[in-house]
C-alpha cells in the first residue's frame, strides 16, 4: 500500500524546489523545537521521509535519489557561501556553521546513516577545493583570529592567579553549558575537519607558519596551551614531518627565554652592562633560519640606532659569539617592538606607547634639543619654537635624525601617528594642497600633540601596512610553496629512476602518483611532466633514443 501511494510522488518530493527548503530550515527549527518540545518541523519531515523511503526501496530512493539531491544541495550551497560573502572574513565561520547544520540533519533526520556521512564529506571536499588557495589562506587566518582572542588570555590569567570563576559558562544553541576552554577546543576541532578535506595542505602550512611567527614574535598569542593543542591536532592529522618546523618555532621561543636569562646574569656581573640593562631592558628572540618564514619582505630601512639600544646590541652580540662560536646573528629590526615612555609634564598624562622600532625612532626625534639622544642642528632652528611651544620637523629632517632610509616607510610611520586611532602627532601643511590628503609632503610641518588624551596608560600604535609588502608576502608564500613542491617532485622522480634505471612514462607516472599520496600535496599530471622535462634538461634523466616514452636514469 505504501509503495502504491508514495512511488508516483517520489520524483516530485525529491525535486529541488520541494526538498531544498527542508534542508535549509531543518537545523534552525530542530534547535527551536527542542526548546519548546514541539516536533513539527522540517527536520522531522525529513526524518519521516527517510523512514518511508527506506521501507519502500532503500537502495533506489535513499542510496541513489535522496543521496544525489542531498549531495547537490551541499555542494551548491557551499559554493554559494564562498562566492556570495561580501567580506572574506565571514566565509570560514559561515562554512563551519553550514557544516554543523548539515551534520545535525544527518544525525537527526537520516539517523547517522554512514552513506550520508560519506556523501557529506565528499561534497564538502568538492566545494572547498573549487577555490582551494583562497580557502587555505582564509582558514589559516581564521585560526589566527581564534588564537588571538582576548577572552582566552583572560581565562589564562585567571587560571594562573588561582582565581575562582564565579560566572556561569556560556551555553550553546541547545542550552548545554560549555566552558570557554571547551568551546575553543571545539572550534579548533571544527577547523581540523575542514583542513582534513583540503587538498593543498602544504599551502596551509605555509600560511599558518607565517601567521604563527607573527603571533609569537609580537606576543599576540592569547594562550600557548591552545597553540600547542592545535599543533598536536595538525601533527595527528599529517604526521611529525608536517609540524617539525612549527614545533621548532616553539623550541626557539623557549630557548630564547633561557638565553636571555643567562645574558641578564652575564650583565649583572658587569658594571657597565648593568648600567645599560638597568636603564633600558631588552628582550631578544633567537630564530633558527630553517624553521621560521623568510623575512626578506621586511627589509631593514635604518642605518642608525639610539646609543642605548646600540650598546645593548653590541654587548649581546659579544656574549652570543662567546657562547656560540661559528654562529652569525642577523638582526631583523623591522620586526622589533619598543615601549616608549612619554612625559607630557602632567602626572595623569604620562603614557607608555607600544610601537615598532621605526615608530620609536621617530618619537625620539621629537625630544627637546637638550636631550642627549637628539642632535638638533642650527639649520633646524627655523622649524623649532614657532610660538606654540612645539617642536616642528619636516620629513627630510626626520629622515636625517632617525636614519630611516626609505621615504615611503617613514611616511607610513608618520601617517600611523597623524591619522591613526591614537592621533599622537599633528601636521601643518605649508602648501596649498588639499589638507585632507594623507600623503606627507617634504615641506609639511609635523609636531607632537601635547594635548593628546587617552584613558589608557599603555597605548599600542598600529603600523600602517604597505600594500606592496602585503602583496610581496603573498607572492613570497606562493613562490616558496611552488619551490617546495618542485623539490619534492624532483626527489620522488629521481628516487624512482635511481631504483629502476629504466622506466616507461606510463609506469613512472603511476609510481609517482602512488608516492605523492603520502605528501601534503597531490600534483597534476601536467606539473609532473614539467618536472620530468626539467630533470631531462638538468641531465638527471634522459629519453631512450627513439623510444620517447622510455626514460633512463643518468648516474
UniProtKB/TrEMBL annotation:
<dbReference type="InterPro" id="IPR016159">
    <property type="entry name" value="Cullin_repeat-like_dom_sf"/>
</dbReference>
<dbReference type="InterPro" id="IPR019559">
    <property type="entry name" value="Cullin_neddylation_domain"/>
</dbReference>
<dbReference type="InterPro" id="IPR001373">
    <property type="entry name" value="Cullin_N"/>
</dbReference>
<dbReference type="GO" id="GO:0031461">
    <property type="term" value="C:cullin-RING ubiquitin ligase complex"/>
</dbReference>
<dbReference type="Pfam" id="PF26557">
    <property type="entry name" value="Cullin_AB"/>
</dbReference>
<dbReference type="InterPro" id="IPR036388">
    <property type="entry name" value="WH-like_DNA-bd_sf"/>
</dbReference>
<protein>
    <recommendedName>
        <fullName>Cullin family profile domain-containing protein</fullName>
    </recommendedName>
</protein>
<dbReference type="InterPro" id="IPR016158">
    <property type="entry name" value="Cullin_homology"/>
</dbReference>
<dbReference type="Pfam" id="PF00888">
    <property type="entry name" value="Cullin"/>
</dbReference>
<feature type="domain" description="Cullin family profile">
    <location>
        <begin position="134"/>
        <end position="408"/>
    </location>
</feature>
<comment type="similarity">
    <text>Belongs to the cullin family.</text>
</comment>
<dbReference type="InterPro" id="IPR045093">
    <property type="entry name" value="Cullin"/>
</dbReference>
<dbReference type="GO" id="GO:0006511">
    <property type="term" value="P:ubiquitin-dependent protein catabolic process"/>
</dbReference>
<dbReference type="InterPro" id="IPR036390">
    <property type="entry name" value="WH_DNA-bd_sf"/>
</dbReference>
<dbReference type="GO" id="GO:0031625">
    <property type="term" value="F:ubiquitin protein ligase binding"/>
</dbReference>
<keyword id="KW-1017">Isopeptide bond</keyword>
<keyword id="KW-0832">Ubl conjugation</keyword>
<dbReference type="InterPro" id="IPR036317">
    <property type="entry name" value="Cullin_homology_sf"/>
</dbReference>
<dbReference type="InterPro" id="IPR016157">
    <property type="entry name" value="Cullin_CS"/>
</dbReference>
<dbReference type="InterPro" id="IPR059120">
    <property type="entry name" value="Cullin-like_AB"/>
</dbReference>
<dbReference type="Pfam" id="PF10557">
    <property type="entry name" value="Cullin_Nedd8"/>
</dbReference>
Amino acid at each position: 500500500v505504501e509503495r502504491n501511494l508514495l512511488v508516483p510522488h517520489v520524483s516530485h518530493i525529491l525535486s529541488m524546489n520541494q526538498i531544498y527548503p527542508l534542508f535549509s530550515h531543518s537545523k534552525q527549527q530542530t534547535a527551536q523545537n527542542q526548546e519548546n518540545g514541539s516536533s513539527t518541523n522540517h527536520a522531522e519531515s525529513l526524518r519521516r521521509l527517510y523512514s518511508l523511503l527506506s521501507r519502500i526501496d532503500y537502495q533506489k530512493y535513499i542510496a541513489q535519489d535522496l543521496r544525489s539531491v542531498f549531495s547537490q544541495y551541499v555542494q551548491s550551497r557551499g559554493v554559494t557561501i564562498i562566492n556570495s560573502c561580501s567580506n572574506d572574513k565571514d566565509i570560514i565561520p559561515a562554512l563551519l556553521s553550514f557544516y554543523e547544520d548539515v551534520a545535525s540533519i544527518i544525525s537527526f533526520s537520516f539517523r547517522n546513516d554512514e552513506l550520508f556521512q560519506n556523501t557529506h564529506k565528499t561534497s564538502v571536499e568538492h566545494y572547498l577545493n573549487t577555490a582551494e588557495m583562497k580557502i587555505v589562506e582564509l582558514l589559516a587566518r581564521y585560526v589566527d583570529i581564534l588564537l588571538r582572542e582576548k577572552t582566552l588570555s583572560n581565562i589564562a590569567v585567571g587560571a594562573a592567579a588561582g582565581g575562582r570563576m564565579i560566572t556561569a559558562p556560556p551555553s550553546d544553541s541547545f542550552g548545554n553549558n560549555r566552558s570557554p576552554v571547551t568551546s575553543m577546543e571545539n572550534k579548533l576541532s571544527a577547523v581540523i575537519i575542514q583542513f582534513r578535506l583540503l587538498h593543498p595542505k602544504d599551502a596551509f602550512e605555509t600560511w599558518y607558519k607565517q601567521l604563527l611567527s607573527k603571533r609569537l614574535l609580537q606576543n599576540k598569542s592569547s594562550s600557548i596551551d591552545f597553540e600547542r593543542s592545535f599543533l598536536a591536532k595538525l601533527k595527528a592529522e599529517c604526521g611529525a614531518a608536517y609540524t617539525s618546523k612549527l614545533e621548532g618555532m616553539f623550541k626557539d621561543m623557549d630557548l630564547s627565554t633561557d638565553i636571555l636569562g643567562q645574558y641578564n646574569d652575564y650583565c649583572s656581573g658587569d658594571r657597565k652592562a648593568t648600567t645599560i640593562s638597568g636603564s633600558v631592558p631588552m628582550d631578544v628572540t633567537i630564530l633558527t633560519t630553517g624553521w621560521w618564514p623568510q623575512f626578506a619582505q621586511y627589509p631593514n630601512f635604518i642605518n642608525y640606532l639610539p646609543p642605548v639600544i646600540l650598546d645593548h646590541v653590541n654587548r649581546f652580540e659579544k656574549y652570543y659569539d662567546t657562547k656560540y662560536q661559528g654562529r652569525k646573528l642577523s638582526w631583523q629590526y623591522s620586526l622589533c617592538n619598543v615601549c616608549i615612555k612619554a612625559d607630557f609634564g602632567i602626572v595623569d598624562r604620562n603614557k607608555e606607547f607600544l610601537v615598532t622600532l621605526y615608530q620609536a625612532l621617530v618619537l625620539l626625534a621629537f625630544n627637546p634639543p637638550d636631550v642627549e639622544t637628539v642632535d638638533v642642528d642650527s639649520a633646524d632652528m627655523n622649524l623649532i619654537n614657532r610660538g606654540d611651544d612645539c617642536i616642528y620637523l619636516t620629513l627630510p629632517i626626520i629622515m636625517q635624525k632617525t636614519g630611516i632610509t626609505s621615504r615611503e616607510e617613514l611616511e607610513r610611520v608618520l601617517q600611523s601617528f597623524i591619522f591613526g586611532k591614537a592621533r599622537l602627532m599633528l601636521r601643518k601643511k605649508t602648501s596649498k594642497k588639499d589638507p585632507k590628503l594623507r600623503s606627507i609632503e617634504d615641506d609639511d610641518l609635523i609636531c607632537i600633540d601635547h594635548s593628546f588624551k587617552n584613558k589608557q596608560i599603555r597605548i599600542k600604535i598600529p603600523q600602517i601596512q604597505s600594500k606592496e609588502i602585503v602583496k610581496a608576502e603573498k607572492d613570497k608564500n606562493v613562490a616558496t610553496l611552488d619551490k617546495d613542491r618542485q623539490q619534492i617532485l624532483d626527489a620522488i622522480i629521481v628516487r624512482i629512476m635511481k631504483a629502476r634505471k629504466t622506466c616507461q612514462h606510463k609506469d613512472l607516472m603511476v609510481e609517482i602518483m602512488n608516492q605523492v599520496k603520502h605528501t601534503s600535496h597531490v600534483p597534476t599530471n601536467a606539473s609532473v611532466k614539467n618536472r620530468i622535462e626539467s630533470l631531462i634538461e638538468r641531465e638527471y634523466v634522459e629519453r631512450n633514443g627513439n623510444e620517447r616514452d622510455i626514460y633512463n636514469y643518468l648516474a
